[in-house]
Amino acid sequence: MSLYFEDLTPGLRFTSRAVRMSVEGIIGFARDYDPQPFHTDPEAAVESFFGGLAASGWHTAATTMRLMVESVPIAGGLIGAGVEIAWTRPVRPGDELVAVSEVMELKPLRSKPDRGMAVVRIETRDGAGEAVQVITCKMVVPRRPV
Amino acid sequence: MSLYFEDLTPGLRFTSRAVRMSVEGIIGFARDYDPQPFHTDPEAAVESFFGGLAASGWHTAATTMRLMVESVPIAGGLIGAGVEIAWTRPVRPGDELVAVSEVMELKPLRSKPDRGMAVVRIETRDGAGEAVQVITCKMVVPRRPV
Fold first, then answer.
1. Among A30, A65, A125, B24, which has the highest number of CB atoms less than 10 A from its own CB?
2. What pLDDT sits at residue B146?
3. Beta pairing class for B131-142 and A131-142
4. Helices and strands per DSSP (H, E), number in chain B
């Protein structure tokens, strides 16, 4: 199934599988991209702002993208022009993340008749159903070829 | 050197080292977090929206975070409450990325006398000096202990 701009309606929702965040995964990502003690060192993290090891927000964001690629079947793929991200709770080892993506708004582009812009809100939830991250994304979506 | 909220002023800038984006690095990140043909398959990418292999925006964002950790010496580390990201140009294999971070605005937090909020704009530039990504970030910055 591939969805074109014409197939989208506000309120349409996609729910991903769950993915578990491990200590090793959290530390591995942080060593490459966000090497700060509260993301790389469980002992040092206790004394930090987070009070214990927490995933880099960029790890949560990248993991969310993976879940979206698997669960949001836009024709031609997921192409974001820009996003807003709020990190609402720390992500901890053992958290099982699920991404729930919802179409909020659809904007035809007058200058580009072959595509439209969709505003999609992606809530990433932990196992307790609490939001750990909220993304609002402007996505480029192709129109159905005639 | 560790900078506290009192040490920051609007206009203060930090420039990172350059990091080169390789074909292998682009494909490796995308396989883990953004497995779409325009990020993982140089041949298939030619026919895509991007017209050739391009780094995942999340790879550019994570790489930028790495460069910020190395170049922006905030006391206690870099802790973001939220960001806006615009991806302004595709990042290609061979691009050398530099992150230029600039303090834009400083907001004391009345309810939290031990910290403040700094709005920081991070422009990630390619080797030609063109912006490939612009992040506006709200950062939590501790006040200098008395």
1. A65
2. 81
3. unpaired
4. 4, 5
Of the candidates A48, A69, A80, which has its C-beta nearest B35's C-beta? Answer: A69
pLDDT band at B1 (very low <50, low <70, confident <90, very high): confident
Which chain A residue lies closest to B62 (C-alpha atoms)? A33
Eight-class DSSP state of A30: H
B97 has a pLDDT exceeding 90: yes
CATH number, domain with residue A80: 3.10.129.10
Q: B120 is in which domain, residue-wise?
A: 5-142
Q: ipTM more than 0.85?
A: yes
- Render pLDDT for A98-133 as a digit per residue (tens, 0 to 9): 999 999 999 999 898 899 999 999 999 999 999 999
Q: Are A138 and A119 in contact (CB under 8 A)?
A: yes
Count of domains observed in chain A: 1
Interface test mutation site (partner B, options A70, A79, A117, A139, max chain B beta carbons within 10 A): A79
**Predicted confidence (pLDDT) at residue A1 exceeds the cutoff of 80:** no
10 Å CB burial of residue B43 (0-12, 13-18, 19+) is exposed
Determine which helix (DSSP H) or strand (DSSP E) holds A24, and give its type and residue range.
Answer: helix A23-33
